[in-house]
From TrEMBL:
Residues 93-102 have a biased composition (Basic and acidic residues). Transmembrane segments: none annotated. It comes from Halorubrum glutamatedens. It comes from the Archaea. This is HEAT repeat domain-containing protein. InterPro entries: ARM-like, ARM-type_fold, PBS_lyase_HEAT. The lineage of its organism: Archaea, Methanobacteriati, Methanobacteriota, Stenosarchaea group, Halobacteria.
Amino acid sequence: MSNGDDEPAEAAEEADAADQADTDEPEATTPTLPDEATEESLTEYLDEIETALEDAGTEAALDDVEALLDDAEDALAGADLPEPDEDDEDADDPRGDLEDRIAELREGLEDARGPYAEDVVEAIEASVSTLEDTEWTAEGHEDAADAVEAFVDAAAEAVDDGVDADAIETDPDAADGENVDDDDTDAGDTDDEGGADGGAGADDEAGTDDDGVAVLVAALDAVAAGIADAELDPDEDAETLADLLAATDALEEGLEDAEEWDDLETHEQLRAQGYYDVLGHYKDYPVEWAALKEHEAQGNVDMILLALDSLQSDFMERHCLEAFERMGKRGKTEASLEELLGRAGKRDRFAIRILGKMAAEEAVETLLEYVDEDSNPQLQKATFKALGEIGDGDAVGPLAEKLAMENDHVRPLAARALGLIGDTRAIDPLADAIAEDDSDDVRAAAGWALRQIGTREALEAVAEYADERSFVVQTEAEKARAALDAAATPA
């Protein structure tokens, strides 16, 4: 049985043991910059910095890690490291590997910092922009107000000495209440049908939206100001800042889920016309894109046009047009032609390309107008290829004349377009091109085109260049010679 005199002794022994344990723990060492910057020494130095980054628990410690990375970068810049063999794609690149390692550590450093009060304020400002830039439905406005109110309450709970929820107005109706005097209401203002004169209901809803948004924006501004004034420290108040960022995420989600007028009108139109009926389980987002893929697979041209007309976004426009390009002739209808011809009439190269894939003869008249657009070679390239794919003989003369144009990059496309059309009237101008053009690319394209035409005359015009110095021209000539030999050999 111990007496009271033993207790001080036991306490002293426990303290000594704790001191001994602290002494036994290895102290964290500061990475030391190597005297000689070699691949091995810099790698070891970066390993030490990585350990320091993992152990850093404060912004000051992270600042120290950043300084160490700066030193490592300076040392690497002055290091005499072997250069990789440019002819060997698999050769080691010590400098590049170390630069990548430093960049990776810097990314880890940035990820470890914060969060900061500025991050929270920036997120609040983004939500303010969403509120101001969006036209809400009545139901959506209520949902947005609920999201703001929940955020204000969460912010007040996190920063109880900086945000006073009771002092911040979040009720959108409060704005209307300040402007409406019940005593001024005149029951005689109703018309014979029992409705308010002038459609007051619609005006009231619009007023509630405008004034109510101002109330919500003021509430968020008040919270942002309170957070800024609270001077939250990223180390001491890390938990509070994390809670605030979680609250801003919830606010953003609430605003995203709230109903907008544009969303309602567009989605209702699409739903009423069966646009979403093809969807079962889907993985792609947004759902409009998922439905678009199904309509493309099923050849539902009208639904793709509906999406193109209704969903006014660059994202969906691009995917609708790409769907038509992949569908090619399957996507050709009177309605789709009208849409694409309208775009082609405005020099839209994407639409021109699609009309070629559709082999749309209806586009030839429009496309021929662009053949002589020498100042717009990109438009010419799209036009020539489309005309070749359409294959209309009316394009032979205009395209043949472009074999003499100055642009070396466009002439080959004129030659190839003539080959795709396959009209024998192109044999002479193509033969002249392979004989006289200064560009081997143009000559090879002319040879290819003559092979596509495929008559004996066309093949002979190419085959005579089998001993040509240019490999690409020689290749076309050898293929033409082989075709002639095959035709001459009895079956």
